[in-house]
Protein backbone atom coordinates (compact mmCIF):
# COMPACT_ATOMS: atom_id res chain seq x y z
CA UNK A 1 0.00 0.00 0.00
CA UNK A 2 1.14 3.58 -0.54
CA UNK A 3 2.34 5.06 2.69
CA UNK A 4 1.33 8.55 3.79
CA UNK A 5 4.03 11.14 4.18
CA UNK A 6 3.03 12.03 7.68
CA UNK A 7 1.10 10.28 10.41
CA UNK A 8 -2.61 10.39 9.91
CA UNK A 9 -4.97 11.55 12.54
CA UNK A 10 -5.07 9.27 15.48
CA UNK A 11 -8.51 10.12 16.56
CA UNK A 12 -7.47 11.64 19.88
CA UNK A 13 -9.40 14.75 18.95
CA UNK A 14 -13.01 13.77 18.52
CA UNK A 15 -13.76 16.51 16.00
CA UNK A 16 -12.73 16.67 12.37
CA UNK A 17 -9.84 19.14 12.34
CA UNK A 18 -9.19 21.75 9.67
CA UNK A 19 -6.71 19.58 7.79
CA UNK A 20 -9.14 16.67 7.51
CA UNK A 21 -11.95 19.01 6.44
CA UNK A 22 -9.75 20.46 3.67
CA UNK A 23 -9.00 16.95 2.40
CA UNK A 24 -12.71 16.11 2.64
CA UNK A 25 -13.61 19.20 0.61
CA UNK A 26 -11.30 18.16 -2.22
CA UNK A 27 -12.59 14.59 -2.25
CA UNK A 28 -16.24 15.67 -2.11
CA UNK A 29 -15.70 18.02 -5.07
CA UNK A 30 -14.42 15.16 -7.22
CA UNK A 31 -17.13 12.78 -6.02
CA UNK A 32 -19.85 15.31 -6.81
CA UNK A 33 -18.65 15.50 -10.43
CA UNK A 34 -18.61 11.74 -10.78
CA UNK A 35 -21.98 11.03 -9.18
CA UNK A 36 -23.77 14.12 -10.52
CA UNK A 37 -22.84 13.11 -14.06
CA UNK A 38 -24.72 9.83 -13.71
CA UNK A 39 -28.04 11.54 -12.93
CA UNK A 40 -27.64 14.72 -14.97
CA UNK A 41 -27.35 12.77 -18.24
CA UNK A 42 -30.58 10.86 -17.56
CA UNK A 43 -32.47 14.12 -18.09
CA UNK A 44 -30.83 14.65 -21.47
CA UNK A 45 -31.82 11.30 -23.02
CA UNK A 46 -34.86 12.67 -24.91
CA UNK A 47 -32.68 15.53 -26.14
CA UNK A 48 -30.01 13.13 -27.41
CA UNK A 49 -32.71 11.10 -29.13
CA UNK A 50 -34.02 14.08 -31.10
CA UNK A 51 -30.65 15.83 -31.56
CA UNK A 52 -28.96 12.79 -33.09
CA UNK A 53 -32.11 11.26 -34.63
CA UNK A 54 -31.66 7.97 -32.81
CA UNK A 55 -33.72 5.50 -30.80
CA UNK A 56 -34.35 5.53 -27.06
CA UNK A 57 -32.29 2.35 -26.61
CA UNK A 58 -29.30 3.85 -28.43
CA UNK A 59 -29.54 7.13 -26.52
CA UNK A 60 -29.61 5.16 -23.26
CA UNK A 61 -26.12 3.89 -24.06
CA UNK A 62 -24.80 7.31 -23.06
CA UNK A 63 -25.63 6.20 -19.51
CA UNK A 64 -24.87 2.50 -19.90
CA UNK A 65 -21.40 3.11 -21.37
CA UNK A 66 -20.50 5.31 -18.41
CA UNK A 67 -21.74 2.67 -15.95
CA UNK A 68 -19.83 -0.13 -17.67
CA UNK A 69 -16.62 1.92 -17.66
CA UNK A 70 -17.09 2.56 -13.94
CA UNK A 71 -17.54 -1.14 -13.27
CA UNK A 72 -14.51 -2.07 -15.36
CA UNK A 73 -12.07 0.36 -13.75
CA UNK A 74 -13.09 0.14 -10.08
CA UNK A 75 -11.43 -3.28 -9.51
CA UNK A 76 -7.98 -2.01 -10.46
CA UNK A 77 -8.13 1.12 -8.29
CA UNK A 78 -6.88 -0.69 -5.16
CA UNK A 79 -3.78 -2.07 -6.89
CA UNK A 80 -3.18 1.17 -8.80
CA UNK A 81 -3.30 3.15 -5.54
CA UNK A 82 -0.54 0.90 -4.19
CA UNK A 83 1.51 1.08 -7.37
CA UNK A 84 1.30 4.79 -8.23
CA UNK A 85 0.17 6.44 -4.98
CA UNK A 86 -3.33 7.66 -4.13
CA UNK A 87 -2.63 11.35 -4.77
CA UNK A 88 -1.04 10.81 -8.18
CA UNK A 89 -3.80 8.43 -9.25
CA UNK A 90 -6.51 10.79 -7.98
CA UNK A 91 -5.08 13.65 -10.05
CA UNK A 92 -4.92 11.40 -13.12
CA UNK A 93 -8.56 10.38 -12.61
CA UNK A 94 -9.62 14.03 -12.46
CA UNK A 95 -7.81 14.75 -15.73
CA UNK A 96 -9.42 11.76 -17.50
CA UNK A 97 -12.89 12.70 -16.27
CA UNK A 98 -12.54 16.37 -17.24
CA UNK A 99 -11.07 15.52 -20.65
CA UNK A 100 -13.90 13.06 -21.24
CA UNK A 101 -16.42 15.79 -20.35
CA UNK A 102 -14.96 18.20 -22.91
CA UNK A 103 -14.99 15.49 -25.60
CA UNK A 104 -18.64 14.74 -24.77
CA UNK A 105 -19.53 18.39 -25.35
CA UNK A 106 -17.71 18.29 -28.71
CA UNK A 107 -19.50 15.12 -29.91
CA UNK A 108 -21.12 15.48 -33.35
CA UNK A 109 -23.01 12.17 -33.27
CA UNK A 110 -24.27 9.61 -30.78
CA UNK A 111 -21.31 7.23 -31.40
CA UNK A 112 -18.58 9.72 -30.46
CA UNK A 113 -20.67 10.81 -27.46
CA UNK A 114 -20.89 7.23 -26.19
CA UNK A 115 -17.13 6.81 -26.69
CA UNK A 116 -16.39 9.99 -24.75
CA UNK A 117 -18.66 8.78 -21.96
CA UNK A 118 -16.46 5.68 -21.65
CA UNK A 119 -13.43 7.92 -21.08
CA UNK A 120 -15.42 9.86 -18.49
CA UNK A 121 -16.30 6.62 -16.72
CA UNK A 122 -12.69 5.44 -16.64
CA UNK A 123 -11.77 8.59 -14.72
CA UNK A 124 -14.93 8.84 -12.63
CA UNK A 125 -14.83 5.18 -11.59
CA UNK A 126 -11.67 5.70 -9.53
CA UNK A 127 -12.66 8.99 -7.88
CA UNK A 128 -14.98 7.46 -5.26
CA UNK A 129 -12.85 4.50 -4.04
CA UNK A 130 -9.72 6.67 -4.03
CA UNK A 131 -11.58 9.41 -2.19
CA UNK A 132 -12.80 6.96 0.45
CA UNK A 133 -9.25 5.68 0.94
CA UNK A 134 -7.76 9.19 1.22
CA UNK A 135 -10.39 10.38 3.71
CA UNK A 136 -10.27 7.26 5.87
CA UNK A 137 -6.50 7.53 6.19
CA UNK A 138 -6.60 11.27 6.88
CA UNK A 139 -9.20 11.06 9.63
CA UNK A 140 -7.90 8.04 11.54
CA UNK A 141 -9.77 5.10 13.07
CA UNK A 142 -12.01 6.89 15.57
CA UNK A 143 -13.62 9.18 13.00
CA UNK A 144 -14.51 6.85 10.15
CA UNK A 145 -18.24 7.43 10.67
CA UNK A 146 -17.89 11.18 10.43
CA UNK A 147 -15.77 11.20 7.29
CA UNK A 148 -18.16 8.72 5.67
CA UNK A 149 -20.99 11.13 6.50
CA UNK A 150 -19.09 13.90 4.74
CA UNK A 151 -18.49 11.66 1.72
CA UNK A 152 -22.23 10.93 1.70
CA UNK A 153 -22.91 14.53 0.65
CA UNK A 154 -22.24 13.93 -3.06
CA UNK A 155 -24.33 10.75 -2.93
CA UNK A 156 -27.23 12.97 -1.91
CA UNK A 157 -26.50 15.90 -4.21
CA UNK A 158 -26.29 13.61 -7.26
CA UNK A 159 -29.88 12.34 -7.21
CA UNK A 160 -31.18 15.73 -6.00
CA UNK A 161 -29.15 18.13 -8.06
CA UNK A 162 -28.69 16.06 -11.22
CA UNK A 163 -32.25 16.29 -12.57
CA UNK A 164 -32.57 19.94 -11.49
CA UNK A 165 -29.23 21.04 -12.93
CA UNK A 166 -29.62 19.01 -16.12
CA UNK A 167 -33.14 20.30 -16.77
CA UNK A 168 -32.10 23.90 -16.21
CA UNK A 169 -28.97 23.76 -18.38
CA UNK A 170 -30.80 22.12 -21.28
CA UNK A 171 -33.74 24.52 -21.11
CA UNK A 172 -31.65 27.66 -20.61
CA UNK A 173 -28.67 26.82 -22.85
CA UNK A 174 -28.10 23.47 -24.60
CA UNK A 175 -27.19 19.88 -23.83
CA UNK A 176 -23.50 20.66 -24.33
CA UNK A 177 -23.40 22.54 -21.05
CA UNK A 178 -24.24 19.51 -18.92
CA UNK A 179 -20.72 18.37 -19.83
CA UNK A 180 -18.93 21.72 -20.16
CA UNK A 181 -19.83 22.59 -16.58
CA UNK A 182 -17.34 19.92 -15.50
CA UNK A 183 -14.43 21.83 -17.06
CA UNK A 184 -14.15 24.66 -14.49
CA UNK A 185 -15.03 22.29 -11.65
CA UNK A 186 -12.38 19.82 -12.83
CA UNK A 187 -9.71 22.52 -13.05
CA UNK A 188 -10.54 23.80 -9.55
CA UNK A 189 -10.61 20.24 -8.22
CA UNK A 190 -7.21 19.46 -9.76
CA UNK A 191 -5.52 22.56 -8.32
CA UNK A 192 -7.10 21.97 -4.90
CA UNK A 193 -6.09 18.29 -4.89
CA UNK A 194 -2.52 19.18 -5.93
CA UNK A 195 -2.18 21.63 -3.03
CA UNK A 196 -4.23 19.95 -0.28
CA UNK A 197 -3.95 16.18 -0.56
CA UNK A 198 -1.05 14.70 1.45
CA UNK A 199 1.84 13.24 -0.51
CA UNK A 200 2.29 9.50 -0.34
CA UNK A 201 5.04 7.21 -1.50
CA UNK A 202 4.03 4.34 -3.79
CA UNK A 203 4.90 0.92 -2.39
CA UNK A 204 4.71 -1.47 -5.37
CA UNK A 205 5.25 -4.58 -3.28
CA UNK A 206 2.77 -6.65 -5.29
CA UNK A 207 2.82 -7.68 -8.93
CA UNK A 208 -0.24 -6.78 -10.93
CA UNK A 209 -2.86 -9.51 -11.24
CA UNK A 210 -3.27 -9.52 -15.03
CA UNK A 211 -5.29 -12.75 -14.99
CA UNK A 212 -7.66 -11.32 -12.39
CA UNK A 213 -8.00 -8.15 -14.44
CA UNK A 214 -8.78 -10.17 -17.58
CA UNK A 215 -11.50 -12.06 -15.70
CA UNK A 216 -13.14 -9.53 -13.37
CA UNK A 217 -13.31 -6.25 -15.31
CA UNK A 218 -14.80 -7.68 -18.53
CA UNK A 219 -16.89 -10.05 -16.39
CA UNK A 220 -18.51 -7.19 -14.48
CA UNK A 221 -18.93 -5.15 -17.67
CA UNK A 222 -20.58 -8.06 -19.55
CA UNK A 223 -22.85 -8.94 -16.64
CA UNK A 224 -24.01 -5.34 -16.19
CA UNK A 225 -24.45 -5.00 -19.95
CA UNK A 226 -26.85 -7.94 -19.90
CA UNK A 227 -28.69 -6.61 -16.85
CA UNK A 228 -28.90 -3.13 -18.37
CA UNK A 229 -30.47 -4.62 -21.52
CA UNK A 230 -33.44 -6.08 -19.61
CA UNK A 231 -35.63 -2.93 -19.74
CA UNK A 232 -35.08 -2.62 -23.51
CA UNK A 233 -36.35 -6.16 -24.16
CA UNK A 234 -38.83 -6.34 -21.30
CA UNK A 235 -37.75 -9.82 -20.30
CA UNK A 236 -34.78 -11.77 -19.01
CA UNK A 237 -35.46 -14.55 -21.52
CA UNK A 238 -33.71 -12.86 -24.44
CA UNK A 239 -30.40 -13.72 -26.08
CA UNK A 240 -29.12 -10.14 -25.87
CA UNK A 241 -29.73 -10.26 -22.10
CA UNK A 242 -28.81 -13.84 -21.25
CA UNK A 243 -25.66 -14.32 -23.35
CA UNK A 244 -23.62 -11.37 -22.01
CA UNK A 245 -25.01 -11.79 -18.48
CA UNK A 246 -24.11 -15.50 -18.34
CA UNK A 247 -20.68 -14.92 -19.90
CA UNK A 248 -20.04 -12.13 -17.41
CA UNK A 249 -21.22 -14.27 -14.51
CA UNK A 250 -18.97 -17.13 -15.62
CA UNK A 251 -15.97 -14.78 -15.77
CA UNK A 252 -16.75 -13.44 -12.29
CA UNK A 253 -17.05 -17.00 -10.90
CA UNK A 254 -13.75 -17.88 -12.56
CA UNK A 255 -12.21 -14.83 -10.91
CA UNK A 256 -13.43 -16.01 -7.50
CA UNK A 257 -11.61 -19.35 -7.88
CA UNK A 258 -8.53 -17.56 -9.21
CA UNK A 259 -8.51 -14.98 -6.39
CA UNK A 260 -8.79 -17.60 -3.67
CA UNK A 261 -5.66 -19.33 -4.98
CA UNK A 262 -3.52 -16.24 -5.64
CA UNK A 263 -1.54 -14.54 -2.86
CA UNK A 264 -2.15 -10.99 -4.14
CA UNK A 265 -5.35 -10.97 -6.23
CA UNK A 266 -6.90 -7.94 -7.89
CA UNK A 267 -9.68 -7.98 -5.27
CA UNK A 268 -8.82 -9.65 -1.98
CA UNK A 269 -11.77 -11.97 -1.33
CA UNK A 270 -10.16 -13.00 1.95
CA UNK A 271 -11.59 -9.76 3.31
CA UNK A 272 -14.85 -11.71 3.57
CA UNK A 273 -13.28 -13.69 6.41
CA UNK A 274 -13.93 -10.49 8.36
CA UNK A 275 -17.44 -11.10 9.71
CA UNK A 276 -18.27 -7.40 10.11
CA UNK A 277 -17.33 -6.59 6.51
CA UNK A 278 -19.31 -9.56 5.18
CA UNK A 279 -22.45 -8.50 7.04
CA UNK A 280 -21.99 -4.92 5.83
CA UNK A 281 -21.63 -6.09 2.21
CA UNK A 282 -24.81 -8.19 2.37
CA UNK A 283 -26.74 -5.32 3.98
CA UNK A 284 -25.42 -2.81 1.43
CA UNK A 285 -26.28 -5.10 -1.49
CA UNK A 286 -29.93 -5.47 -0.50
CA UNK A 287 -30.22 -1.81 0.42
CA UNK A 288 -28.74 -0.49 -2.84
CA UNK A 289 -30.91 -2.76 -5.01
CA UNK A 290 -34.07 -1.61 -3.21
CA UNK A 291 -33.29 2.06 -2.65
CA UNK A 292 -31.61 2.87 -5.97
CA UNK A 293 -34.23 0.95 -7.90
CA UNK A 294 -37.05 2.78 -6.13
CA UNK A 295 -35.30 6.11 -6.59
CA UNK A 296 -35.55 5.69 -10.35
CA UNK A 297 -39.36 5.70 -10.12
CA UNK A 298 -39.92 8.99 -8.29
CA UNK A 299 -39.26 11.41 -11.18
CA UNK A 300 -41.00 9.08 -13.64
CA UNK A 301 -44.21 9.21 -11.59
CA UNK A 302 -44.17 12.99 -11.38
CA UNK A 303 -43.49 13.40 -15.11
CA UNK A 304 -45.59 10.62 -16.61
CA UNK A 305 -48.56 10.52 -14.24
CA UNK A 306 -48.74 14.04 -12.82
CA UNK A 307 -47.60 15.81 -16.00
CA UNK A 308 -44.81 17.78 -14.35
CA UNK A 309 -41.80 19.10 -16.23
CA UNK A 310 -38.41 17.49 -15.74
CA UNK A 311 -37.18 20.48 -13.75
CA UNK A 312 -40.27 20.42 -11.51
CA UNK A 313 -39.84 16.68 -10.94
CA UNK A 314 -36.27 17.26 -9.83
CA UNK A 315 -37.45 19.89 -7.34
CA UNK A 316 -40.24 17.64 -6.05
CA UNK A 317 -37.85 14.83 -5.07
CA UNK A 318 -35.50 17.25 -3.27
CA UNK A 319 -37.12 16.67 0.20
CA UNK A 320 -35.54 13.20 0.22
CA UNK A 321 -32.07 14.72 0.07
CA UNK A 322 -32.98 17.38 2.62
CA UNK A 323 -34.07 14.69 5.07
CA UNK A 324 -30.79 12.84 4.62
CA UNK A 325 -28.83 16.04 5.21
CA UNK A 326 -30.53 16.34 8.61
CA UNK A 327 -29.62 12.88 9.89
CA UNK A 328 -26.37 12.09 8.07
CA UNK A 329 -24.02 14.28 10.18
CA UNK A 330 -25.68 13.09 13.41
CA UNK A 331 -25.49 9.47 12.28
CA UNK A 332 -21.80 9.90 11.48
CA UNK A 333 -20.99 11.05 15.01
CA UNK A 334 -23.14 8.38 16.65
CA UNK A 335 -21.64 5.63 14.48
CA UNK A 336 -18.17 6.46 15.81
CA UNK A 337 -19.43 6.35 19.41
CA UNK A 338 -22.00 3.56 19.49
CA UNK A 339 -21.51 1.50 16.33
CA UNK A 340 -23.80 1.45 13.27
CA UNK A 341 -26.23 -1.35 14.20
CA UNK A 342 -29.03 0.56 15.95
CA UNK A 343 -28.82 3.49 13.53
CA UNK A 344 -29.12 1.30 10.45
CA UNK A 345 -32.09 -0.60 11.87
CA UNK A 346 -33.87 2.67 12.68
CA UNK A 347 -33.05 4.08 9.25
CA UNK A 348 -34.45 1.06 7.42
CA UNK A 349 -37.69 1.31 9.42
CA UNK A 350 -38.02 5.00 8.47
CA UNK A 351 -37.41 4.22 4.79
CA UNK A 352 -40.06 1.50 4.85
CA UNK A 353 -42.57 3.84 6.54
CA UNK A 354 -41.96 6.60 4.02
CA UNK A 355 -42.09 4.23 1.05
CA UNK A 356 -45.38 2.73 2.23
CA UNK A 357 -47.14 5.89 1.01
CA UNK A 358 -45.97 5.17 -2.52
CA UNK A 359 -47.49 1.69 -2.50
CA UNK A 360 -50.89 3.45 -2.38
CA UNK A 361 -50.26 5.91 -5.19
CA UNK A 362 -53.18 7.47 -7.04
CA UNK A 363 -53.32 9.98 -9.85
CA UNK A 364 -54.18 12.77 -7.41
CA UNK A 365 -52.31 11.76 -4.24
CA UNK A 366 -51.62 14.85 -2.13
CA UNK A 367 -48.26 16.45 -2.89
CA UNK A 368 -47.88 17.30 0.80
CA UNK A 369 -48.22 13.62 1.68
CA UNK A 370 -45.73 12.58 -1.03
CA UNK A 371 -43.16 15.23 -0.13
CA UNK A 372 -43.47 14.42 3.58
CA UNK A 373 -42.94 10.73 2.81
CA UNK A 374 -39.87 11.53 0.72
CA UNK A 375 -38.50 13.58 3.63
CA UNK A 376 -39.02 10.66 6.02
CA UNK A 377 -37.27 8.33 3.56
CA UNK A 378 -34.41 10.81 3.42
CA UNK A 379 -34.13 10.78 7.21
CA UNK A 380 -33.81 7.00 7.04
CA UNK A 381 -31.34 7.12 4.18
CA UNK A 382 -29.06 9.43 6.18
CA UNK A 383 -29.05 6.88 9.00
CA UNK A 384 -28.39 3.91 6.74
CA UNK A 385 -26.08 4.15 3.76
CA UNK A 386 -22.91 5.71 5.17
CA UNK A 387 -23.11 3.92 8.57
CA UNK A 388 -23.15 0.63 6.61
CA UNK A 389 -20.07 1.81 4.74
CA UNK A 390 -18.46 2.78 8.04
CA UNK A 391 -19.22 -0.67 9.46
CA UNK A 392 -17.25 -2.21 6.62
CA UNK A 393 -14.24 0.11 6.55
CA UNK A 394 -13.90 0.52 10.32
CA UNK A 395 -13.47 -3.23 10.62
CA UNK A 396 -10.34 -3.22 8.45
CA UNK A 397 -6.72 -2.56 9.23
CA UNK A 398 -5.00 0.44 7.68
CA UNK A 399 -3.45 -1.76 5.02
CA UNK A 400 -6.82 -3.18 3.96
CA UNK A 401 -8.72 0.11 3.56
CA UNK A 402 -7.98 0.68 -0.16
CA UNK A 403 -9.06 -2.87 -1.08
CA UNK A 404 -12.10 -2.63 1.18
CA UNK A 405 -13.27 0.66 -0.32
CA UNK A 406 -12.81 -0.80 -3.81
CA UNK A 407 -14.92 -3.82 -2.84
CA UNK A 408 -17.71 -1.65 -1.41
CA UNK A 409 -17.79 0.53 -4.52
CA UNK A 410 -18.14 -2.57 -6.73
CA UNK A 411 -21.05 -3.68 -4.53
CA UNK A 412 -22.71 -0.26 -4.87
CA UNK A 413 -22.26 -0.07 -8.65
CA UNK A 414 -23.47 -3.62 -9.27
CA UNK A 415 -26.39 -3.35 -6.85
CA UNK A 416 -27.51 -0.02 -8.30
CA UNK A 417 -27.50 -1.41 -11.85
CA UNK A 418 -29.44 -4.51 -10.82
CA UNK A 419 -31.97 -2.46 -8.82
CA UNK A 420 -32.55 -0.05 -11.69
CA UNK A 421 -33.04 -2.87 -14.20
CA UNK A 422 -35.33 -4.91 -11.92
CA UNK A 423 -37.62 -2.00 -11.04
CA UNK A 424 -37.76 -0.85 -14.67
CA UNK A 425 -38.87 -4.30 -15.84
CA UNK A 426 -41.46 -4.68 -13.07
CA UNK A 427 -42.91 -1.24 -13.77
CA UNK A 428 -43.02 -1.88 -17.53
CA UNK A 429 -44.79 -5.21 -17.07
CA UNK A 430 -47.31 -3.67 -14.66
CA UNK A 431 -48.09 -0.98 -17.23
CA UNK A 432 -48.36 -3.36 -20.18
CA UNK A 433 -50.65 -5.70 -18.22
CA UNK A 434 -53.25 -2.90 -17.93
CA UNK A 435 -54.87 -1.73 -21.16
CA UNK A 436 -55.64 1.79 -19.90
CA UNK A 437 -52.15 2.24 -18.51
CA UNK A 438 -50.53 0.93 -21.70
CA UNK A 439 -52.59 3.27 -23.89
CA UNK A 440 -51.80 6.30 -21.76
CA UNK A 441 -48.11 5.34 -21.47
CA UNK A 442 -47.83 5.09 -25.26
CA UNK A 443 -49.47 8.49 -25.66
CA UNK A 444 -47.03 10.04 -23.16
CA UNK A 445 -44.03 8.65 -25.02
CA UNK A 446 -45.30 9.87 -28.38
CA UNK A 447 -46.50 13.19 -26.91
CA UNK A 448 -50.06 12.58 -28.15
CA UNK A 449 -51.88 12.72 -24.80
CA UNK A 450 -53.91 15.71 -26.04
CA UNK A 451 -55.47 13.49 -28.70
CA UNK A 452 -56.95 11.09 -26.13
CA UNK A 453 -60.50 11.55 -24.76
CA UNK A 454 -60.66 13.03 -21.26
CA UNK A 455 -62.03 9.74 -19.89
CA UNK A 456 -59.12 7.78 -21.36
CA UNK A 457 -56.60 10.23 -19.89
CA UNK A 458 -58.17 9.98 -16.43
CA UNK A 459 -58.35 6.19 -16.54
CA UNK A 460 -54.81 5.95 -17.90
CA UNK A 461 -53.36 8.19 -15.19
CA UNK A 462 -55.14 6.18 -12.50
CA UNK A 463 -53.93 2.88 -13.96
CA UNK A 464 -50.37 4.22 -14.32
CA UNK A 465 -50.38 5.31 -10.67
CA UNK A 466 -51.49 1.81 -9.69
CA UNK A 467 -48.62 0.32 -11.72
CA UNK A 468 -46.16 2.50 -9.83
CA UNK A 469 -47.74 1.52 -6.52
CA UNK A 470 -47.47 -2.20 -7.28
CA UNK A 471 -43.81 -1.73 -8.19
CA UNK A 472 -43.15 0.01 -4.88
CA UNK A 473 -44.57 -3.04 -3.11
CA UNK A 474 -41.62 -5.04 -4.44
CA UNK A 475 -39.20 -2.28 -3.38
CA UNK A 476 -40.57 -2.13 0.16
CA UNK A 477 -40.27 -5.91 0.54
CA UNK A 478 -36.58 -5.64 -0.39
CA UNK A 479 -36.13 -2.78 2.08
CA UNK A 480 -37.69 -4.82 4.90
CA UNK A 481 -35.42 -7.76 4.04
CA UNK A 482 -32.47 -5.48 4.80
CA UNK A 483 -33.46 -5.73 8.47
CA UNK A 484 -32.20 -9.34 8.60
CA UNK A 485 -28.49 -8.71 7.91
CA UNK A 486 -28.68 -5.26 9.56
CA UNK A 487 -29.67 -6.97 12.81
CA UNK A 488 -26.16 -8.46 12.97
CA UNK A 489 -24.29 -5.19 12.46
CA UNK A 490 -22.21 -4.05 15.48
CA UNK A 491 -24.21 -2.14 18.08
CA UNK A 492 -21.37 -0.98 20.27
CA UNK A 493 -17.92 0.50 20.00
CA UNK A 494 -15.32 -2.16 20.67
CA UNK A 495 -11.57 -2.26 20.99
CA UNK A 496 -9.14 -1.38 18.24
CA UNK A 497 -8.14 -3.97 15.68
CA UNK A 498 -4.50 -3.96 14.65
CA UNK A 499 -2.64 -6.02 12.09
CA UNK A 500 0.71 -7.04 13.60
CA UNK A 501 2.18 -7.45 10.13
CA UNK A 502 2.06 -3.68 9.75
CA UNK A 503 4.58 -3.44 12.60
CA UNK A 504 6.90 -5.49 10.45
CA UNK A 505 6.43 -3.12 7.51
CA UNK A 506 4.83 -5.69 5.23
CA UNK A 507 3.35 -3.84 2.28
CA UNK A 508 3.05 -0.57 4.20
CA UNK A 509 6.49 0.90 4.29
CA UNK A 510 6.76 2.60 7.65
CA UNK A 511 4.31 0.89 9.94
CA UNK A 512 4.62 3.64 12.52
CA UNK A 513 2.58 5.78 10.19
CA UNK A 514 -0.19 3.24 9.87
CA UNK A 515 -2.74 3.49 12.69
CA UNK A 516 -4.87 0.59 13.76
CA UNK A 517 -8.44 0.81 12.58
CA UNK A 518 -11.33 0.42 14.96
CA UNK A 519 -13.44 -2.69 14.88
CA UNK A 520 -16.97 -1.77 15.84
From TrEMBL:
GO CC annotations, alphabetized: plasma membrane
Q: Which PANTHER family match?
A: MAJOR FACILITATOR SUPERFAMILY MULTIDRUG TRANSPORTER MFSC
Transmembrane ranges, per UniProt, are: 20-45, 57-77, 89-108, 114-135, 147-170, 176-197, 209-230, 242-260, 272-298, 310-331, 343-361, 367-393, 414-432, 471-489
Its ancestry begins with: Bacteria, Bacillati, Actinomycetota, Actinomycetes, Jiangellales
Highest taxon listed in the record's lineage? Bacteria
Write the protein's name: EmrB/QacA subfamily drug resistance transporter
Where does the Major facilitator superfamily (MFS) profile domain lie?
23-493
Q: Which UniProt keywords apply?
A: Cell membrane, Membrane, Transmembrane, Transmembrane helix, Transport
